[in-house]
Amino acid sequence: MKNTLTVFLLLLQTVVFAQQLPEKVNDQKRYKSDNRMFYVWNEGRDAYDLRDTEFENSVIDIREIGSRSNGYILLALTDDGNVRTYHGSIIQFNIDDEGNSTWVLRSKNARGKLVLDPKKKTLTYSYESNEKRYVKIFVFHITDDDDERDN
């Protein structure tokens, strides 16, 4: 009788702890930006040149499905009244020692990288790579009131 009661309590404890620690299946984060900077790699100077500073709205959606390295990313940029979109499937995710989150994404014919720096409140989107580095970079400044809002 004692063994049956002990086994029952252990089974009950296992079920209770399993219910308290659910795995996050779907997570969507939306970041909004009211200005961004656009950089292009300059072969002659061996550095990035600031091409444009735009004070227009941008929306960045990150949808993680099942795990942090699965899902998709959508960037919608307002540019002179037109909307440009960049998107791709998440193929890799990691967090560095400084707390910066990095998502590597791939679309049908392109590859890019999105880096969230929570201390500076910036999102950096790098795309169009050559053999050595990414050629084009957008740096988005995240607005304070909409930091990492769950939908």
Topology:
Blueprint: H1 2-20, E1 26-42, E2 47-54, E3 58-65, E4 71-79, E5 82-95, E6 101-106, E7 111-117, E8 122-129, E9 134-142, E10 149-150
Antiparallel strand pairs: 1-2, 1-3, 1-9, 1-10, 3-4, 4-5, 5-6, 6-7, 7-8, 8-9
Describe this structure in words.
With 151 residues, the chain is mostly beta strands. It is 13% helix and 58% strand. It has one helix at 2-20, and strands at residues 26-42, 47-54, 58-65, 71-79, 82-95, 101-106, 111-117, 122-129, 134-142, 149-150. It has an eight-stranded antiparallel barrel with strand order 1-3-4-5-6-7-8-9. A hairpin with a 2-residue loop joins β4 (71-79) and β5. The longest helix is centred in the first third of the chain and has 19 residues, at 2-20. Mean pLDDT is 84; it is low at 146-151.
Tag the structure with descriptive keywords.
151 residues, mainly beta, eight-stranded antiparallel β-barrel, 13% helix, 58% strand, disordered C terminus
Give a short overview:
The chain has 151 residues and is mostly beta strands.
- Anisotropy-based shape: elongated
Number of strands: 10
How are helices and strands ordered from N to C?
HEEEEEEEEEE
Beta percentage is over 45%
Main β-sheet description: 8 strands, antiparallel, barrel
Structural class: mainly beta
Mean pLDDT metric: 84
Helical content band = 10-25%
Q: Determine the N-to-C terminus distance.
A: 50 Å
C-alpha Rg (nearest Å): 21 Å
Contiguous runs where pLDDT drops below 50 for at least 5 residues: 146-151
